[in-house]
Structure formats: C-alpha cells, structure tokens
Write a structure and sequence with these properties.
This protein is of the alpha+beta class and about 850 residues long. About 15% of the residues lie in helices and about 40% in strands. It is elongated, with a radius of gyration of 41 Å.
C-alpha cells in the first residue's frame, strides 16, 4: 500500500514539472498585456490622413511606470471612438508594438436642405450640430434630423418627416442633404375645461394664450399646438383663480390628445376650484426688535373684507420688503401666513417680518444680449454689486426686463459666490426683433378713408431708445409725425419724449373749414407707482384755418343800402334750409354772394388773424388698474390732464379734462362699463377765447350725433351753421358688453347695449367784429347787424346748446385679425334744436 502511494506521488510530481512551462505559455497568449506592456512611443498609427499621429497617441495615457496595460489601451480605444473623427478603430499587437488602425470619417463639403418652405435654411443651420468643413458623424446626423423635426413640431407641424442623405464625393468628402416633408400644421381643435363652476369656459378661454383653430387662424399662430404654451396656460388659470379669491385652486392637469379624424389636438384642463375666500384680518408680526411691523401697514394692498388676491399679496410683500430696506433693514424678509376659516370662507393674513441671512451680491452676470447694451439691462435693477441681496428687488428687475419687450425670455437665477455670504445673479436673456414696419388702413365715418405708413424701433441702436416716424394720408386728414423717447434721462428713471408733428384736417360735411397745424412737444414721464404715472409737457404749435372761396366771397363794399330792389332769382343756401327754415323766410334782398352761404363770424375772424402761435405747458395723471389694456373686463382707468396756454404765443387759456372708465365683470361673461367725462376751458385775462380752442363734441361724447354735432352753433340763415364749440362739457355712459355665445370664442365678436347722456355749452369766443370800408374785409352776414359799409358786426346769432343730449343704442365690437372694428347704431332721445344727428357710426383699421 505504501509502495502504491509512492508511485502515484512520483507520477504527479512528474506531470507538474512538465505542465508548468505549458501553462505559463498559455497564460502569456491569453493575457498578452500582462506579459508585454508597451510604452506610448511604441504605438504605430495606420490609416490616418488628416489626423496627426501624435494626436492619436495622445489618447493613450500610460499607467504606472510609463507602461500601457490593457486598461489603458481600452480607455484609449474608447476615447478615439468618442471623438467622432473615425468610422472604425482597431488595435492589434505585433512584435512588441501596439498597432492602431483607423478609418477616418469623411469631411462634410456641403449641407443642404430640401423641401423646407416654412422655415428658412439659415434658421435650421443654426440649430444643427453638423457643419460644413466639419467631420461627418452618423450619430450626430441622426440627432440633427430629430432636432429639425422638433423645430417643426414647435411651429405646429407634427407630421413632419426628415430624412438625411449622405452623398459620397472624391477625396473622402461627402455632401449632407436633409430632405424635409413638412406636412400641414397641427392645430388645437378644441379647448375644454372640467370642474369650473365659478367661471365659464368662455371666460377662461380669455385667460389662456392657446386658441382654437378657425377660419382666420392663418393670420395668427395661437391655435398651433405648443406643449410649452399649454403648460404656461395652466399657470395662467391658477393665477386667475388666486387673484379672485380661490386660495385652494388646483389646475390638476392639462390633458392633450391627438384626434386623427379632426387632424388636431384636443386640450382639456382639469380644475379643482375650492372655495372663494375673503380677507378677515390683516396683521403684522415683526421679530426684529427695532422694527414695528405696523409701520409697513400702508404698503399693504390687501384690505379687510375684500376678496383674497394672491397678486395683491405678492405686490404687498414686494413693497413692504423694499420699504424695510429703505429704513435700514436690508436683510429683512416678509413672509405671509394665511389661516383659513373653512366654515366662514375667510382667511386671516399675517405678514411676518424676520431678519434674513446676511447675503451680498458679489456679481451680476448678463448673458444672451447680443444687441442690447449691458447698461440698458443693469439699469432696471435697483441694486448692484456689493449691495444686500433682496429677492423682492430681483423679482421687480425681472418684471421690468420683461416689460421692456426687448426679449423673448428673461430669467434671473442665483449661484453661490466665492463665500457662503456671497451670491452671483445670472440674467439669461434671449433677444427678439424690436423693429416694426407697418402699413395701416382704415375707414371711419368721421375721417373717411385713411392710410398710414410707419416705421418704429423700440430698442434703437441697442440703447433702449424709442424712435418712430409715420406718414398719414386720408380723405379728410393727412400729416406726418416724428417721435423719440429716452426712457432714462441722465441715468434717472425719467422718460424724455420729443414729438414733431404736422397735421392737416380738410373741410368735410361736418365742418366748413380746414385746419393746418405744425408743432413740437417735449415731455417728461414719471412712474410714481406701477399703476400711477405722471407726465409733464410743453407744447408749441402754429395753426391756421382755410376756407373755400365761396364761403368768404362777401366784403364790406357789397353791403346794400336800404331800398335795394330784391332779386327774385336768389335762392336760400343749403345751410339755410338745413335749419328747418321755410324758403319764404329767405331775405332775397341779400347780395348774391350770400346765396351759397358764408362762413360764421368766428371762423372768418380766425382766417383774418392768419397763423396763430400757441405755447402751453401741461401735465397728465394716469391711474390704470385694468386687467387687460386691449380687452379690459375689470379695473379702473382714469386720465386727468390740464394745459395752460400763455407762456408766450398769441393765445392764453386754462384747459382741464378728466376721463374715467370703470369695468366690472357681471354674470355670464357680461362686462359692465361706466364711462365718465368732463372738461372746462377758462380764459385768462380779458382776451376772448379762440373758436378753435373750444371743445368740439359729437359721438365722442353722446353716440347718435355727428362729429361736431352738438353744442353752441351759428344759426344765422345765411351762414354755414358752423359748430362754435363750448367751454364746458360733461358726459356719462353706461354700457353692457356681452359675447355671442353661439359663436366660437376665437372669432372675437361681441355686442353691446348702452345709454349715453351729456352736454356741451357756454361758448366764450368772439361775438362781434369791428371793420372798416375795405374791399377785402369780410363783411357782416345779413341779420347780424344793419348792412352798412363801416362799423361793427354785432349780435352773433347762435344757439348756446344748453340742453342735455341723450341716446340709447347697440354696438358690434370685433377684435378682428384686421384690427379693432366697431359699429354703432344709436337713437337720440333728447337733443338741441340745431344739433346734427348721425345714428350710424363705423370705425376701424389694421396694420400689416
């Protein structure tokens, strides 16, 4: 047994002794890098034509001892492939060397786009990564095709197809062709709201930006499906509810579904409204011992008893935080707390004032402004580098930058600074076109056909300046104007405006004379609050009137002495008959030059005076809380202005006017409007007021009357019945505006019913005119004085218009793609004996 064991042990030792060299050789073959480790200088590169050998070698990083192990070779291989310079990379080892064989990617000679009609080549080129004279990368080409398709989807074309094609050329070059099949636009076919009780779907469609497709959608782009816009609409709906007392509102989802049959998207917003809350209490609690929270009470826009308004709450916090900073508490933070009473549907708000972290602004970085100068952006901040960080001031700066309307997007973010108490503000911008060229056309019953060509630039030279030039030419009105605005005069938030204008109003069926005005007006604008602004101005202009010859063809030498035989061939003028006088009342003893009418004495006096220079200073106060300036449904707009003429010039007066409009939503999307107007003209000293300085009113005060159709009027039967104007006026209107519920919201058509009342009276112009026996001196109209050759024209025959005018009517309002249009039909209820009626009125225009 022992012998057997020794024999087997000897055989085992012999096998191990002979097998060891074989195992070592096999291991060397299976793991060559462990046995043969190259250095970087032992790398041989083959197949390269453009890429330098050393560039290839640089991707292989030696390990410990300067040797290349298997791990270093694998990393180098991956790095070469990731460069995108090569179609293929192979690595072999021979004779102690590392052989790297590469097949280079071809060079792109030309990139072309075919089939793209809606998006220009230049726009696509800036979006893709492949570039001419660059290296072709097939994964990059596929990525570019997807990017082009995404651009089309953003413009509403979801059935777009993009096919890349690579055409081989000599010398390892290729042409890259993207063939685009654009397809048709994919619009929004329907917008639905689920869960809305307080506000109708019709009303909520006004809140969002997305619109349903209709026959006129080609004139705009809001009906094109855009997922980002739909997501933004969710926030708009939420903010609308929060503004109107619904503190618990949630816009749960915005569901979108493509309908193949309708070939468009169906968008559904799911809303959970919650309860409407009113404010029960407003309290202030300050943890800063030296700051009494009640000193900030006057800056709160939240009032007890009012509806909870998240927008007013945000503005209150902003103004309180800014005021605390002004008082020396630069790091104070105001946080609101709301305690709801679910049974009473009230909320008690407490503004908590705490000391925030002491953080300073290290730097403000502005990015993306390719045209706008840096200082134009930085001046919208009320803080700078080194100041205490104040989130309220940062939010205000972001809002101001958006309101400039220079940028597609504005976003201000913060990044950590060089230390824990430092922060870097980053302003990311995307520029947009700020120039406008427009050709406007319109027609109104007042001005007739009218056309305007204008060019304007809101960000002139990238300096934030505004410039505009326009030319108007119409049937009864023409002229030009030049405007320039510097919004930051001497680096202060004061706007300097300069206007140069020339206007010409021609005689028409409402006035017998024409006027020509040329002038210049500098002005300064101040923003007192976000809803309150002040403007002071100086105006200087020269004005003159013109008359047709037949209205001024009678002079003093043509007066007749008593006993002249009447001429039966003379007929009464149209103006005489228009006043309701019988033809038998016509004084046929008048000269023939009166038969076709003669302009009123005040008009002829203005003509005799020639050019008149007016120099005035004035101001305007504007208060605006409208929810939408173009289509208001809620809020108050008040404009009060005064002008004092007499700072030099030929005339002097004090003119005051107020115009107030109050909008409020009623029921079923009906909006109520109360419009109040009033004005007064006072003369300075003993100088008579000019007729042209008086207020002229008609349908702009009480609808249903012609332009210049109400108020004091010359009623001499031989005259032209010119409106003389008044020194006082008042007007009040009540109107209900309602949509046509049976029409799609996107049509933008709504109706109105209204009642107007007002009055214009108290003419303070010239009523007499001294004259001498001059051939060219305008004579007295018969009936104003005895027809003598010298003396004074006295006793201007006119009706002072001291009557309340009133009317009721209906209107059609269309926010059309061609511009705002309005048609009114009004029936006067009360009027003066000599007023002129115009029951139908139409006005509108557009830019394109």
């Amino acid at each position: 047994m022992n012998v057997g064991m020794r024999v087997r042990g000897g055989l085992l030792a012999t096998l191990i002794m002979f097998a060891m060299p074989v195992a070592v050789a096999l291991a060397a073959m299976l793991v060559p890098s462990a046995a043969v480790a190259q250095t970087a200088s032992s790398i041989v590169v083959e197949g390269n034509r453009r890429v330098d050998v050393e560039t290839v070698r640089s991707y292989f990083k030696p390990g410990p001892g300067g040797r290349l192990g298997q791990a270093q070779i694998d990393d180098g291989l991956k790095a070469l492939i990731e460069t995108g310079l090569f179609q293929d990379v192979r690595i072999n080892q021979a004779g102690g060397r590392l052989l790297v064989t590469v097949v280079e990617n071809p060079v792109i000679g030309r990139i072309a786009f075919e089939g793209n009609k809606k998006i220009k080549d230049e726009q696509i080129s800036t979006e893709i990564q492949s570039k001419p004279r660059g290296t072709l990368s097939r994964p990059m080409v596929q990525s570019d095709a997807l990017r082009i398709a995404e651009i089309y989807r953003r413009s509403g074309r979801y059935d777009v197809r993009v096919v890349p094609e690579i055409i081989e050329q000599p010398n390892n070059r290729v042409d890259l062709i993207f063939t685009v099949t654009e397809g048709s636009k994919t619009g929004v076919k329907s917008i639905e709201f689920v869960g809305n009780v307080a506000y109708s779907s019709y009303r909520l469609k006004d809140v969002i930006k997305t619109r349903e497709s209709n026959l006129l959608s080609f004139l705009g782009g809001a009906d094109v499906y855009d997922p980002d816009r739909v997501e933004a609409d969710r926030d708009l709906i939420r903010r609308y509810y929060l503004k109107n007392g619904y503190a618990d509102v949630q816009v749960v989802a915005a569901l979108t579904e493509y309908d193949p049959e309708k070939k468009g998207f169906l968008v559904t917003f799911k809303i959970e409204e919650g309860q409407q809350y009113r404010v029960a209490q407003v309290n202030f609690a300050s943890s800063i011992t030296t700051l009494d929270g009640n000193v900030l009470r006057s800056f709160s826009r939240v009032r007890v008893g009012s509806l909870y308004n998240a927008e007013a709450l945000e503005k209150s916090i902003e103004e309180m935080q800014i005021e605390a900073s002004r008082r020396g508490y630069a790091f104070a933070i105001v946080r609101p707390r709301g305690d709801r009473n679910f049974e009473a549907h009230t909320v008690s708000i407490t503004f908590a004032i705490d000391e925030g972290p002491r953080t300073y602004i290290e730097r403000i970085n502005v990015r993306g402004n390719t045209r706008t100068r840096d200082y134009v952006i930085r001046r919208e901040f009320d803080l700078s580098e080194g100041d205490a960080y104040n989130r309220a001031l940062v939010d205000r700066a972001e809002r101001r930058l958006k309101n400039l309307d220079f940028f597609k997007s504005v976003k201000i973010t913060s990044e950590p600074g060089s230390s824990s108490d430092r922060v870097i503000l980053v302003v990311d911008l995307e520029e947009k076109s700020t120039g406008d060229f427009s050709v406007s056309g319109g027609y109104s019953t007042t001005d007739g056909a009218l056309a305007e060509v204008s060019i304007s630039e809101r960000n002139f030279l990238g300096r934030g300046l505004y410039a505009k030039a326009s030319v108007t030419y119409g049937q009864y009105a023409r002229g030009y104007s030049l405007s320039f605005v510097e919004p930051y005069l001497l680096d202060y938030r004061v706007a300097l405006g300069l206007d140069l204008f020339q206007r010409e109003q021609l005689a028409n069926s409402y006035i017998s004379y024409g006027t020509s005005t040329i002038g210049f007006s500098p002005r300064l604008g101040f923003s007192l609050r976000e809803d309150l602004s002040l403007q002071v101005r100086y105006s200087i202009y020269q004005q003159k009137i013109s008359l047709p010859d037949y209205l001024r063809n009678c002079n003093n030498n043509q007066f007749l002495a008593d006993g002249v035989t009447p001429n039966p061939s003379y007929n009464p003028s149209p103006a005489f008959m228009a006043n309701g006088n019988p033809a038998s009342a016509f004084n046929t003893s008048a000269l023939g030059c009166y038969v076709d009418g003669e302009a009123s004495l005040p008009v002829r006096k203005e003509l005799q005076n020639g050019q008149t220079l007016t120099s005035s200073i004035g101001y305007s106060l504007n208060y605006n809380t409208l929810d939408n300036n173009k289509n208001p449904t809620d809020g108050l707009l008040v404009d009060f202005k005064q002008d004092f003429a007499g700072v030099g010039g030929d005339v002097s007066y004090l003119k005051s006017a107020i115009d107030a409009k109050y909008y409020t939503p009623l029921v079923s999307d009906i909006v109520g409007l109360i419009h109040v107007q009033a004005g007064m003209l006072n003369k300075i000293g003993n100088t008579d007021l000019r007729m042209l300085d008086h207020f002229q009113m008609g349908s702009n005060l009480v609808r249903g009357f012609a332009p210049n159709g109400i108020g004091p009027r010359d009623i001499n039967p031989y005259g032209t019945s010119d409106s003389l104007g008044g020194s006082k006026y008042w007007g009040i209107s009540a109107e209900l505006q309602m949509p046509f519920w049976f029409l799609p919201k996107e049509v933008g058509l709504k109706g109105s019913v209204y009642a107007d009342a007002g009055g214009l009276y108290d003419y303070k112009g010239p009523t007499s005119w001294a004259f001498t026996n001059e051939v060219n001196a305008p004579g007295c109209i018969p009936g104003t004085t005895n027809p003598v050759t010298t003396g004074t024209c006295t006793g201007l025959v006119y009706d002072n218009g001291n009557v309340v005018r009133s009317s009721v009517g209906v209107g059609l309002i269309w926010a059309s793609p061609f511009g705002p249009l309005r048609i009114d039909y009004a029936i006067p209820l009360t009027k003066g004996a000599y007023d002129r009626v115009q029951q139908f009125k139409f006005g509108g225009g557009t830019s394109f």
